[in-house]
């Protein structure tokens, strides 16, 4: 029984094994921070593209939609090149720090938040436009109203972004380096520990990650149900 | 037209609301002329009821007057120096996904009413329109009649000089219609110029000071209500009043 990897994984979890929880904590910190930054930039960006008509708008929408499927290793490579010693942002000295991982995840999540919020805000604007014009609102004034009224939809979008950030492995591996105690997160540890044959730790982290994804999806579902009941 | 309904003047506005003029206004979409060209002036006491069969261009006329659409020819004019404060109530009220009171506070906020005055104005308006009990209710779960009253309350807090209403009662039951009509009278008493479309002759009889009659995208007649209902001038209006099908 004691040799069963699953059993050992559970005992690690239940005994609050310090290295394991450190990894979980860092994962959450990096992903939450990345999603927060992506939201602050991405929601207004999405709303702006929904509100204003300008040359090249169609191109912007296509690029945002396409970047939703950006392969994480490509994002990792780009951020790596930017942050490497010889790169344009090399002076920041961020490569192989949690900061670099946050940047990589922002690059991955920002297009999702911007593209999906653009869609939601545009749908809502179609419905509200006449009333807004009647109230004499400028486009800039419409933006906060639309973002607030789309809050439930945007929360679901936010959870989707968090799911992508926390489940991703390629980019954070490349720019973080998977250094024990510094930049080791759940996904990179699972890759490493599985390679080393340390299955209990890998499995323990896998269970935490899976639980997290479940919770996020349950949250998204509940938010959707709640908003349907509140706003009809 | 200024002498119309003179007795009402005493009880109504201290300041008469600005007159609305259509100066050769026409509206075309994709080469098709949908309205006009039409010229008229609304400078009476009102309320002005815009009547006519479906597709006559009533809603279009209201949207052009309110500035939601721009005429492809001619222009909309106001007797005031500045564009007057206006509000519009739609057939389907467009309410924000927030509580009833938050809808009013939002309207006040976008009109730069100081923050500390907003709540009081909002609650006063809710009380006036019988919505105090649902102040905190999400606006979109209110009944159809309550939603339309909330839309009227939103217009009320903006103290418009001109209020446009586009078929505001067409989706409502009789009790709710009564409430909406009472609200329209309150606006009128306050001195707001009312311009309202309806396809309901009985409603027009109850509310109208003057009637603007449209058919086929043209203004056929603009006469005081008593003239319109008893002895309409244009053949189209005569047919309409007589209950014939007018195109």
Features:
heterodimer, A: 232 residues, mainly alpha, MetI-like fold, 79% helix, 0% strand, B: 247 residues, alpha/beta, Rossmann fold, six-stranded mixed β-sheet, three-stranded antiparallel β-sheet, 9 helices, globular, disordered N terminus, MetI-like_sf (chain A), transmembrane helix (chain A)
What does the secondary structure layout of this molecule look like, with pairings?
The complex is a heterodimer of chains A (232) and B (247).
Chain A: H1 5-14, H2 18-51, H3 57-67, H4 72-83, H5 98-134, H6 139-149, H7 151-167, H8 170-176, H9 186-196, H10 199-231
Chain B: H1 6-11, E1 20-29, E2 32-42, E3 48-51, H2 58-66, E4 73-78, E5 86-89, H3 100-110, H4 115-128, H5 144-157, E6 162-166, H6 174-189, E7 193-197, H7 201-207, E8 210-215, E9 218-224, H8 225-230, H9 235-241
Parallel strand pairs in B: 3-7, 3-8, 5-6, 6-7
Antiparallel strand pairs in B: 1-2, 1-4, 8-9
Helix pairs in contact in B: 3-4, 3-5, 4-5, 5-6
């Amino acid at each position: 029984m004691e040799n069963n990897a699953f059993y050992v994984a559970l005992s690690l979890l239940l005994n609050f094994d310090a290295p394991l929880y450190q990894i979980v904590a860092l994962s959450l910190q990096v992903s939450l921070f990345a999603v927060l930054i992506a939201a602050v930039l991405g929601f207004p960006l999405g709303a702006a593209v929904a509100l204003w008509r300008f040359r090249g708008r169609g191109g912007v929408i296509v690029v945002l939609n396409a970047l939703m499927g950006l392969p994480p290793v490509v994002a990792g490579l780009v951020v790596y090149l930017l942050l490497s010693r010889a790169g344009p942002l090399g002076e920041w000295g961020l490569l192989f720090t949690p900061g670099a991982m946050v940047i990589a995840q922002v690059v991955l999540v920002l297009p999702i938040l911007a593209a999906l919020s653009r869609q939601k805000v545009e749908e809502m604007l179609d419905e509200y436009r006449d009333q807004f014009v009647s109230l004499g609102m400028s486009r800039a004034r419409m933006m906060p109203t639309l973002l607030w009224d789309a809050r439930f939809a945007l929360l679901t979008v936010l959870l989707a972004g968090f799911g992508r950030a926390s489940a991703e492995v390629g980019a954070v591996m490349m720019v973080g380096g998977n250094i024990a105690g510094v930049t080791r997160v759940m996904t990179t540890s699972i890759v490493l520990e599985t390679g080393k044959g340390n299955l209990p730790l890998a499995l323990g982290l896998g269970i935490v990650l899976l639980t997290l994804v479940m919770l996020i999806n349950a949250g998204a579902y509940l938010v959707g149900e709640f908003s349907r009941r509140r706003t009809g | 037209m200024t002498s119309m309904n003179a007795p009402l003047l005493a009880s109504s506005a201290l300041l008469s609301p600005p007159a609305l003029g259509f100066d050769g206004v026409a509206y075309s979409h994709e080469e098709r002329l949908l309205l006009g060209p039409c010229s008229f002036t609304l400078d009476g006491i009102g309320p002005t009821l815009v009547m006519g069969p479906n597709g006559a261009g009533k809603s279009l006329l209201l949207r052009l007057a309110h500035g939601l659409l721009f005429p492809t020819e001619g222009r909309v004019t106001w007797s005031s120096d500045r564009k007057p404060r206006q509000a519009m109530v739609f057939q389907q009220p467009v309410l924000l996904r927030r509580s009833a009171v938050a809808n009013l506070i939002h309207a006040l906020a976008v009109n730069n009413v100081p923050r500390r005055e907003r709540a009081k104005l909002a609650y006063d308006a809710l009380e006036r329109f019988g919505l105090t009990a649902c102040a905190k209710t999400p606006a979109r779960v209110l009944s159809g009649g309550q939603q339309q009253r909330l839309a009227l309350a939103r217009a009320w807090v903006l103290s418009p000089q001109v209020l446009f209403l586009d078929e505001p009662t067409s989706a409502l039951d009789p009790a709710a219609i009564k409430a909406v009509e009472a609200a329209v009278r309150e606006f009128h008493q306050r001195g707001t110029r009312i311009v309202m479309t309806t396809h309901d002759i009985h409603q027009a009889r109850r509310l109208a000071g003057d009637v603007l009659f449209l058919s086929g995208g043209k203004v056929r007649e603009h006469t005081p209500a008593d003239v319109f209902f008893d002895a309409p001038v244009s053949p189209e209006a005569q047919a309409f009043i007589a209950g014939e099908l007018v195109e």
